Amino acid sequence: MSKTEEKQQVKGDGRSRPIVAVIPAYNEERYIGSVVLKTRKHVDTVIVVDDGSTDLTAEIAEAAGAVVVRHEGKEGKGTALSTGFRRIRELDPAAVVMLDGDGQHLTEEVPQLLAPVLRGEADLVIGSRYLQKGGGVPRHRIWGHRAFNLLTRVASGVGASDSQSGFRAFSPRAIEYMRFSSEGFSVESEMQFLAKEHNLRLAEVIITANYVEKSKRPVVKHGLLVLDGVLHLIGQYRPLLFFGVPGLVVLLAGIGWGGWVVLIYQRSQTLAIGYALISILLTIVGSLSLFAGIILHSVRGLLLELINPKVSP
Fold first, then answer.
1. Residue of 64, 82, 72, 65 lying closest to 24 (CA atoms)
2. CA-to-CA separations, 90 to 14, 111, 254, 310, in angstroms, rounded
3. Cα separation of 22 and 5, whole Å?
4. CB atoms inside a 10 Å sphere around CB 43
């Protein structure tokens, strides 16, 4: 597909709408210049959000032709993407592609990622490393990715084979909804929650990851940060699941424990005070959690009806 064919001419306002790339970056001076230059071959505008880098990331990105938006300090990938999408909405693009600034993503795959959006077939396209064998993922990462895929699928109600992929494309409709509460690396998972909430059409395409160097942070630490973020998302987007289901389990355990207390009393005519107190505690905690989930679920639904912007497809 040629660059001209990639760009969608949208008539009605007398001008063409651009295709935009957004790259969150932190201390990526080694790769950001080449990533920007290669990405510009496939898009009209590249926006680099410099998340408080202490090296020359911003200067090199700007020299390579990117529009650079800077954070004074490091605020996290989620916040960087929120900043990037605010700037993107000002440009009214036909499509947006998101990729990392560390050279992990192959820019020659940008057209295939944009294709489902430009054809009007999808609102959110995830570049997946797991749709075919040999996706380039180190073995020690694969099981962690699988665990997060399962957790995100169960929690959000939207499945994807690569929930942690940072190589994605968005339609104009999806762009309007990309407003993140996540500050860190759980932002990719949050996109699946948003897709479910706003009925966005999701598709996946095959990509190949290029792990050019070791991760900046230990894999276990990174995984724990993502896990913490996903748990916060569950509490925010699915309070009935987060509070209600555990509450129901604890409540049933308390009732069951109470039944055991009754059986002990029937057999020995002795009240097992310790067991009885445990039963009462479990019943109270379970009831509070269950009703908290129900109430928060109802309040959240009401707030969404009041404040959610109505965006026509």
1. 82
2. 17, 23, 54, 18
3. 20
4. 24
